Amino acid sequence: LGIMRILIETPIFLDISYIATHAATGFPANLNANATVPAVVTYLLERLPAYYQEQGIPTDSVDAVLAVATPIPADINRRVHAVIAFRNLPEAASLAAANKRIRNILKQANLVHIPAINPAVFTVPQELALYQQMVALQPTVQALFAQGDYQTALLQLATLRVSVDAFFDAVMIMVEDVTTRHNRLAVLQQLASLFEYVADLSKLNVII
Question: What is the pTM of this model?
């Protein structure tokens, strides 16, 4: 935990898988130290919930980040604090619930490949409205992700709440028409992907 604390609190933006791989080169070849690298990385990451618990940060916030983040503790820390700020928003509970629902629907669909979104297939105004808002937001949030400004990115994505709620109220996903069904699944996949630049919000236990 001491290593992780130093990397987070300094902060030093180092990938612990790189550190572990580099350290493995110092061992004799017959020990096959490289084979232990994944286990070492997993062990170090598993220490993080305890580190954040000391700060009163819920484990589900950490789990949500670890589900999607690369093993760079300083970057993970940025994401965790972005999620903490997000879960205090009035939109958080609804969007966390929507992400859970999206996960379940995509799992139920069990498609290996979902085609790209085709706006010409939309038949319900609410699906077009959600798609247009996602398209409008995407350049902004992707630039924020690239800068590591995860908190502002989630604040931007929180503005989707009304459109997401309206979409689920008005749109049936698993319709018989394959083209329509796949197009709606593609909308959900893109929506989930936007949030997953920061964390898997479906793991958050936020009460509505």
Answer: 0.90
DSSP the chain: -HHHHHHHHTT----HHHHHHHHHTTS-GGG-GGGGHHHHHHHHHTTHHHHHHTTT--HHHHHHHHTT--S-HHHHHHHHHHHHHHHTSTTHHHHHHHHHHHHHHHHHHT-S--PPP-GGG--SHHHHHHHHHHHHHHHHHHHHHHHT-HHHHHHHHGGGHHHHHHHHHH--SS-S-HHHHHHHHHHHHHHHHHHTTT--GGG-----
CA atoms within 13 A on the CB side of 150: 21
Tokens of 198: 């920061």
> Per-residue confidence at 30, pLDDT binned at 50, 70, 90?
confident
